[in-house]
Amino acid sequence: MIAVGKLLVVCTGNLCRSPLGAALLRGGGFAADSAGLRAAEGRPADPATLRVAARHGVSLDGHMARAFAPALAGGCDLILTMEPAHRFDILRDCPHLSGRVMAFDHWTGGRGIADPFRRPAAAHEAAFQSIARNADEWLRRIAPAEAAGC
Q1: Which residues contact 111 (CB under 8 A, 6 or more apart)?
Q2: Is 92 among the residues known to form the active site?
Q3: Which of 2, 51, 76, 101 has the fewest CB atoms lying closer than 10 Å?
Q4: Is residue 113 within 8 Å of 80, Cβ to Cβ?
Q5: Is 17 annotated as catalytic?
Q6: In a domain, 70, yes or no
């Protein structure tokens, strides 16, 4: 297993996918946060995402959207993106983060996790299932740095 300190999960608006991904990784013992490349700072998580998360025992209480910033990412060991375009945008603007930016669904193909924002409840459930499956893949391969004795 690879020891990882802080994780950052990135999507577009930081309202649906990245808050879920970060919450699931935190549930695995990681220091995980989230951000959006085009986030409207201070907005709460999407209501449909909140309902799906609660149904699965995941709390997004108190989540407020925040924008991705190089300074925020600079303190992270691993930055996981929900779409290939997110990774491209981050590396275009922050090439110094190369080697730390990977797809959230890297272990299952890296094609991206569809954005459920403003879509029916079924899209939010599908996104949750994909994010949960991929979070489990990461949790099988990495360990919190403090648990590894770092």
Answers
A1: 84, 105
A2: no
A3: 2
A4: no
A5: yes
A6: yes
